[in-house]
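The passage that follows is intended for readers who have already worked through the single-chain material. We present the inputs for a multi-component assembly, then the predicted structure in tokenized form, and finally a short commentary. You are encouraged to pause after the input and sketch how you expect the pieces to fit together before reading on.
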Amino acid sequence: MRSILVRAVLAGLLAGLSGLASAHHSFSMFDQTKQVTIVGKVTEVQWTNPHVWIFLDAAPKEGGKADHWGVEFTSKVHLTRRGFSEDMVKVGDAVEFVINPYANGKPGGRFVAVKMANGTYYCDVGQAAMAFCQNDKK
Amino acid sequence: MKTKFMALTALGLAIAAGVLLAQPGKPGKVRPINPSNAEKVSYAELDQLPDWRGIWQPNLGQIGGDQPQLLGKYKKHYEEERAKVAANPHYEIPEKVNNCEPPGMPTMMTMPYSLEFVFAPGKIIVNQEAEMMVRRIYTDGRSLPKDDDIDPNYFGYSVGHWEGQTLVVDTIGTRAGQRLGEPGITNSDKLRINERIYLDKDNKNLLHLDYTFTDPNVLAQPWHRNHTFRRDRTWEILEYVCDENNRHPIDANGQTQAAF
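Having made your guess, compare it with the prediction:
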């Protein structure tokens, strides 16, 4: 009985990762095996549901051409509860974003962490994001 | 003055006629007033109910229960979809929720957003923050309708009663093809959902939702799932309009497109 429960919990966990943790689309469009850091200036903030978006003119820190990037956050609802507010990243700010890039190569991806204009970080709540902010950012 | 009165009367009759015409049911059939909609109801009964105030956030990834014993084409579909996901991490199981369509029951109770329960005489309103879904559970003693009397819909038809401090709810009439439990499993129009919702006996800020899904077309035997929620008294439900800024179109294969 216990093993059934454990399996069910595991199945629930996997399901949570693949679909249930999202109220909208799954995370399948992102390459979650990769993290890309982009450096540039914010051009637009869309403080909306189902996702908050921040756009920037930026280039990969590791090298690559400049482009117009879109960073996709979770919803306005979740960000509000997690202490991220609309005025923390503003148009014109010089920032660094860490993202899981789109698998199809388009210039954008899922938010992992941001080094804001004042030099402090805000990180997403996922394991990879927390690992980045605890270990990698320095 | 008289003309104005007559105009208002005519307007009132027109509105009344419109209301009558807009109601479902057979023409000329006199429908009884539901007890929960009566002119006078007792709010005192609400004092006997447990304190479920605040909002309830799901404990994601902590789902207990047993494995579904799927049947026939539903088993085949689930296995095919899981195989596609295993073969390609960028494959997304097609679901209407990916296109901002509300998932309805039973998924609305276990989304990664908050629930709110509003107790009223004879009914309980459940608000799900995600996609601003609303569900009504009638607790005025009515019976479930016959299957044939329900036009299948997203949330089905729910009737509940209290067994001590446990809310017991039965739901039928959900649309076929909605998510049942997890992506890739769908229900038929014979789905019956039984819920037992109660506060943890040792922790009043923990709410249990025990599901039993019964569907003779989909499941060889009833499927039990157990979810829990933690209370937050500091927040209210926040607005979430999925179509406010949905930048991801769905292609013909139900795959979310990374485009903006």
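Commentary: Residues 1-20 of chain A have pLDDT under 50 and may be disordered. Helices of chain A lie at 2-20, 76-81, 127-136. How closely did your sketch match?
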